[in-house]
Specification:
Number of strands: 10
Strand content: 25-35%
Shape: elongated
Number of helices: 4
Order of helices and strands: HEEHHEEEHEEEEE
CATH class of the largest domain: Mainly Beta
Length: 251
Amino acid sequence: MTQKTFSMVAGVIFSLIALGHLFRLVFKSSVLLGAWAVPFWINWVALILFAYLAYESFRLAKGNPSDRISGTVERIKTWSESAKNIAQIIAIVVAGLWTYQKFIKTEVPSLELRSSVTSDLSIDPLADKRSCSATFSVYAENIGQSSFDVSRVRVRGWEFDVAEDKKRFAVFVDTEKTTSKPPFFDQEFTSRRLVGRYAPGQKSFTTFEWILRRSPNKMIVFEAELHAQNPENARVPLVTSRWRKVCSPTD
């Protein structure tokens, strides 16, 4: 391959690369490396660099005098070396940004404490016609990728009246207002099945039971708060609650 043909081929290649970067800048196309979006300033740098290399390659292919050719070749060599250094710097920056995106913004959050805490409340009348039983079941599961510990479980209960209004189709139950009042039950447990270490995917549950006096138009709310702590000593309260109507004397 002659020097002229080589320069022409190099100019075409450099031009195509420059046009590719120009295309992205004009049409604002998104480029993703994993979950990282490549910024447009990289395209500006590459466009200027490869456009200059294409220009010098085409100048060399025109068949200029030997001294001019020699100077052009030297400039291309210098720019090629600079391009290689710039490419290495850009590669390091891109690799650093990708690492940040991948591990700091994607992997690290997945290692945070993630759990699923649910509950159920059932109330059943007893045979003595004066009382009923309340069973508050609490379920916990580690749905994250790191272990965490539950040191204690706090269970609270509130009761409130709901006036029956036969003229109204619906009655709003404000449980937040109810739980702002002093509870009729408030106790912490440190030896129930919910307490302990939760490996990824591990589940546990336990039940709390009460005997209630039958009361018409009476509602109760039970809340369980699990005090969880991950290996980084970040404490996270895990809360679940349920409410039901207390059975009446006629149930």
